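Hi F.,

I've been meaning to write this up properly since the lab meeting, where we talked about keeping a consistent format for the predictions we share between groups. The idea is simple: the sequence comes first, exactly as it goes in, then the structure tokens exactly as they come out, then a line or two of notes. No screenshots and no reformatting. I'm using this chain as the first example so we have something concrete to point to.
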Amino acid sequence: MPALQVRDFPDDLYEKLKEVAAREHRSVAQQTIVAVEAMVSGEYARAKEEPRRSIYLDFDTEAKRAARIKKRQELFESAKALAEECPQMSQLSADDIVKTIRDGREERSEHLFNLLIGNE
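Output, unedited:
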């Protein structure tokens, strides 16, 4: 999967992007993809004429989404507790962290793909 790096991104615009991502319960990367998809697909031009709708692939019900958000919050809390108990956790290399994130993204992508083709 290609990576995108934007140099000299304005701080104020990044803060606004973070706020929108938090409101939508997405990461900054996910929100950036949604924004680019909307712009490229023409949703950006129609935004003033039509009510806002998400074009992000989300097959979950509101209950599943709420459960996923709760699970994520619990995960962050347990990670904080674990970091306090195990100081060596803070010695993880950037490569370890990147691998963990990449594995999670691949797992989610595979799950979405299986939903699209009807394997789940």
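Notes:
Residues 49 and 87 are 53 Å apart (CA to CA).
The two ends are 23 Å apart (CA to CA).

If this format works for you, I'll send the rest the same way.

G.
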